[in-house]
Amino acid sequence: MLWLLFGKHSRAKPAPETDYGPGGTTLRSEFLSYGLIGALAIGLLIAAFTDFRRRQIDNWLNASIALAAPLFWWASGLSLWPGVGWQVGVALLTFVLTAALFALRAMGGGDVKLLTALALWIRPDHFFYLVVIMAMLGGLLTIAFGAWHIARRQPGRVAIPYGIAISAAGILTLIDKSLPVLGGSTAG
């Protein structure tokens, strides 16, 4: 039923000499899709690590994640309309909402950019799942870092590396939602 809102993923017909995989998709584009998802997962792990160590997510990393999304769209056969349109729309909405949180000093700039870049990758019908997981993990992270901050009797506000929650939610969403979709399963 969601395909009425978001459209089905369309697959262009490959050249006759192309190897076909299960379901008529090309093996090359499936391998590329999985390779890009693997690269995204590595990028998310780097983001989590740097946010933990330095409380900073580098701009080059966020830009790389965002700029690789169109290649993923092409490899996974996402239609220009409504597919790409919805991806960009959700990313813009994510940016507006998280930029407001940044203005309220409730979220860091790197977190805003990371979540917006991730919105370009995660299907719109799965993005809410990511946000719920991120909120739950972020709550646990806040409790843990708050307790550690109080136990060490440090003055001032505690700095929460929220990039860890964003990255973990992104990886969990990729594992739970995106990998079965690419494999042709109807799960998710």
Characterization of this structure:
This protein has 188 residues and is mostly helical. It has one domain (24-182). The protein is 71% helix and 0% strand. The protein contains seven helices and no strands. Helix 2 (27-54) runs antiparallel to helix 3, helix 2 (27-54) runs antiparallel to helix 7 (163-182) and helix 4 packs antiparallel against helix 5 (109-119). The protein is elongated and about 55 Å long. The two termini are 13 Å apart. Mean pLDDT is 84; it is low at 1-25 and 182-188.
* Overall tally of domains: 1
Overall geometry comes to elongated
For the biggest sheet, the summary is: none
Total number of helices: 7
Which ranges are low-confidence, i.e. pLDDT below 50, for 5 or more consecutive residues? 1-25, 182-188
> Roughly how many Å apart are the termini?
13 Å
Total strand segments: 0
In terms of structural class, how would the helical and strand content be classed? mainly alpha
**Rg (C-alpha, Å):** 18 Å
What attributes does this structure have?
disordered N terminus; mainly alpha; about 190 residues; disordered C terminus
